[in-house]
Amino acid sequence: MSIFEYNGAAIIAMAGKECVAIGSDLRLGVQFQTLATDYKKVYRIHDKLYIGLAGLSTDAQTLFHRFVFKHNMYKLREERDMKPATFSQMVSSTLYEKRFGPYFVSPVIAGLDPDTSEPYLAGMDTIGAIETAKDFMVAGTAPDSLYGMCESMWRPNMEAEELFETVSQCLQSGSDRDALSGWGAVVFVITKDEVIARTLKGRMD
């Protein structure tokens, strides 16, 4: 079993009209043994920026605290929050620093540009090679079924409520086809005015 599949994960970020959504499943396991069913893999950096970390959960926790520290230092120096594109470059350089002994995580970044309210989606590999997308980005142990659901259900310029429904359906249906993820989900919808967080019940088998 790959080290990326050790704890299991399913993460989806999706763009809408002046809004963006990111969600993850809630299962924490050790291979096929389930340890917890309330483990969120999406972390808040600030109100317009969230990051999902799939992969080894211990590395994800370590990296999240490093990202918060670096963002706080940036905020003290610049007196403003990081833009999503800037944060993405910082995540990339942090991962590349450790390229000879990498963190076993696959980050997914979702945010809104504070000036234009344009959605920003990015993903990267373990050494920080950035890939951006205009529609959706997935990570985790079931990328094929997650991609399949997103490709069939995503459409441009969705409003916040429709975007939530779409991400929820994609996340639940995609993780139902994967033994290493599932057991419910949490979805964050980021708009220019608010952040809406909802927890979903899923199959418990």
How is this structure best summarized?
31% of the residues lie in helices and 33% in strands.
Structural notes for this entry:
The structure is a single chain. By secondary structure, this protein is an alpha+beta fold. It has one domain (3-200): Aminohydrolase, N-terminal nucleophile (Ntn) domain (Glutamine Phosphoribosylpyrophosphate, subunit 1, domain 1, 4-Layer Sandwich). It has four helices and twelve strands; from the N terminus they run ββββββααββββααββ. The strands form three sheets. It has a five-stranded antiparallel beta sheet with strand order 10-1-2-11-12, with helices on one face. A hairpin with a 3-residue loop joins strand 11 and strand 12 (195-200). Helix 3 (143-153) packs antiparallel against helix 4. The two termini are 21 Å apart. The mean pLDDT is 90.
